[in-house]
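note to self: dont lose this again. the chain is below, predicted strucutre after it. 488 aa total, dont forget to put it in the shared folder this time
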Amino acid sequence: MKKVFLLTSLLSVAIISQAQNVLSLDSCRALAIANNKELLISNEKINAAHYQKKAAFTNYLPEISANAGYMRNQKEFSLLNTDQKNALSGLGTTVGGTLEQAGAALGQISPELAQQFGPILNALGEQLVPTFNSVGQSLVDALRTDTRNVFAGAITLTQPLYMGGKIRAYNKITKYAEELAHQQQNSSLQEVILSTDQVYWQVVSLVNKKKLAESYLNLLEKLDDDVNKMINEGVATKADGLSVRVKVNEAEMTLTKVEDGLSLSRMLLCQLCGLDLTTPISLEDESIEDIPLLGMGTQFDMEVAYANRPEIRSLELAKEIYKQKVNVTRAEHLPSLALMGNYILSNPSAFNSFENKFKGMWNVGVMLQVPIWHWGQGTYKVKAAKAEARIAQYQLEEAKEKIELQVNQASFKVKEAAKKLVMTEKNQEKADENLRYATLGFQEGVIATNNVLEAQTAWLKAQSEKIDAQIDVKLTEIYLQKSLGTLK
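---
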């Protein structure tokens, strides 16, 4: 859509620069589309919905995450209690004491043996005590965990296997949401085109009414000049001159009002087209005396109208979204199954006793979650979601009824405007003929000034009604296109 906006904007700017600010209806539409903020916002909504759909699809794919942490503990975890540590650290001393007791017992039994083996036991004790103490202390040190500074990390892979249909429902919802954003943009686009067309033809109408007001003022000024000459000749009264002069003043005031309205309408059109309000513009259809009409038929197929209307398609998509929300709600209370894999790393590591080294391992498994009892919460939520889906269905049916009424009303107004145009054209012909006879009669002196003024007023009214009828036919055709969803 951004490319469309850019191309239409460049095209419109080229048209304006080449034609010296003469705008056609198509170029006004293109400028309005390129500069309308609502359309730019809706385009960004489409982008957001598109990326949300892509994000929803990633739920089918495995997810990989990494976690790491550090913790400082006040105390160290110990596998041995204090008595066990002391016993192992004094293992040699205990052995030495046992040898001494053995030597003393041997002396009581046989002094000769005590004299013979006593020195041997003493020497053996002197050698074993430090050795066993060292061995016991090394066991204590080996069983130390050193868990005051702990580093840990993990890389986890999760692959959903069955989520109760939630992932599939979310993907459908995001798909419908993206299409819904497109339909909302189409609806906004038609509103912009409708607003632009209304102002465009309003400017054309006021341009023609300005020409009409100028023609009427010229007629009155000529009549005023003729009456003044007749007053000087004595064949007309000053009252006739004052009557004509009043009409001239009224015509000048009407012309001023039309000029002011035309200036404001041009400013409004410039605002819609994104141009500076003071930009001097003229419209391609300003010089056309008889505005071209589309001549649309009033026969239509409502099913085709429903298919073309973005509002109906939007409500249909909303209905589908609510249906999928029922599936999402139901899935929250169904079993879910996922495949999991981890690689866990820690320091200190416990894979080869306790070491201050980073070591890790991998593991794989499955995780099953089965809701058992929630006091009927899932049932209630599903029923609420189904109620919302029924609301969307009722809104769709109501919108169809209103659109059918809108189409019939627009069709009736097209017929009415066409009949009104035929009548105004006949009235114009009669008013032209009446003014011609009144003017000739006044020149011949057989028709009074008041009759000429009446004929000119009737001519002005007939001309103005014809312009209004032409614009009315044009606008009712546009409204019918809008109601049928074919306004592009």
